[in-house]
């Protein structure tokens, strides 16, 4: 880092949910704020630490904590389900509670302990109107006019979900990059490719907006499950196999619940 960027050591955690990896910086007691430039430098896997997203923990008067998510390109991510689960696990272990609340741009989300091993988070209700996703005015989210007939779903960030015969055969790098900045998505979009692999079971791969291919995407998994149900392909409770493992998604009346494992890899200090 340049001298002007170096203001003293910054503690961090490296965590992942199914290989979807994060740098977590806890600023509840103060410390250096995260900026776009810092996020870009830390996100560099060769010259920094490397991550799919950076999660910044902040204090909050109405919840156990507040989260801000940063992409590796320095942009803000409105939601990040696996990072929310990871930080939820930190807060559950720290407080000894069975449930904690976390404020994000999506609203106040609840994270709960599942049998002492897994962590579930309520990602809130899906956003299904064009203006909410957001999608270009007048566009039908169930059938936006994009080759491949995808479904557009908002989970605090936009998603474009394609149902294909075999998700493993898709060139995600090429197809995902081609759709990320499609003009129908004014804020760009995450792109998912999913296929039905069994009764209420999906195989999904993802291209994340501002990051690229990741091994898992929590909000994308939720969006894919919602889209599959809306298309009549599955029920409201599904198992989704991603590149990094398996997530359980349950679209309930109070929101879309996502359950899966988390891991704390190491603690470090930025020089």
Can you describe what's shown?
- The chain has a 17-stranded mixed sheet that branches.
- By secondary structure, it is α+β, with helices and mostly antiparallel strands.
- The longest helix is centred in the N-terminal third of the chain and has 15 residues.
- It is globular.
- The N terminus is likely disordered.
- It folds into two domains: 133 residues, Diaminopimelate Epimerase, Chain A, domain 1; 103 residues, Roll (Diaminopimelate Epimerase, Chain A, domain 1), CATH 3.10.310.
- It is built from four helices and 17 strands.
SSE order and pairing:
Blueprint: E1 10-17, E2 20-26, H1 36-43, E3 53-58, E4 65-71, E5 76-77, H2 81-95, E6 99-104, E7 107-114, E8 118-122, E9 151-154, E10 158-163, H3 172-180, E11 190-198, E12 201-208, E13 212-214, H4 218-230, E14 237-242, E15 245-252, E16 255-260, E17 263-270
Parallel strand pairs: 2-3, 4-6, 10-11, 12-14
Antiparallel strand pairs: 1-2, 1-17, 3-4, 4-5, 6-7, 7-8, 8-16, 9-10, 11-12, 12-13, 14-15, 15-16
């Amino acid at each position: 880092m340049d001298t002007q960027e170096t203001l003293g050591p910054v503690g961090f955690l490296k965590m992942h949910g199914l290989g979807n990896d994060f740098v977590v910086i806890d600023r509840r007691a103060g410390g250096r704020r995260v900026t776009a430039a810092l996020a870009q430098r830390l996100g560099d896997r060769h010259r920094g630490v490397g991550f799919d997203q950076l999660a910044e923990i902040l204090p909050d008067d109405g919840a156990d904590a507040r989260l801000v998510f940063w992409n590796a390109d320095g942009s803000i991510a409105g939601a990040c389900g696996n990072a929310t689960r990871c930080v939820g696990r930190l807060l559950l272990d720290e407080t000894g509670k069975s449930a904690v609340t976390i404020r994000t741009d999506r609203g106040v989300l609840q994270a709960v302990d599942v049998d002492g091993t897994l962590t579930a988070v309520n990602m809130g209700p899906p956003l299904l109107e064009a203006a909410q996703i957001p999608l270009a005015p007048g566009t039908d989210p169930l059938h936006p006019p994009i080759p491949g007939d995808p479904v557009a779903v908002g989970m605090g960030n936009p998603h474009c979900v394609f149902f294909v015969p075999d998700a493993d055969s898709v060139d995600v790098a090429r197809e995902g990059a081609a759709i990320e900045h499609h003009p129908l998505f004014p804020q760009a979009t995450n792109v998912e490719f999913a296929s039905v692999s069994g009764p209420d079971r999906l195989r999904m791969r993802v291209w994340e907006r501002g990051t690229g291919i990741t091994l898992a995407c929590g909000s994308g998994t939720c969006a894919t499950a919602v889209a599959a149900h809306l298309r009549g392909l599955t029920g409201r409770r599904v198992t989704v196999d991603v590149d990094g493992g398996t997530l359980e998604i349950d679209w309930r009346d109070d929101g879309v619940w996502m359950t899966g494992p988390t891991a704390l890899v190491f603690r470090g200090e930025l020089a």
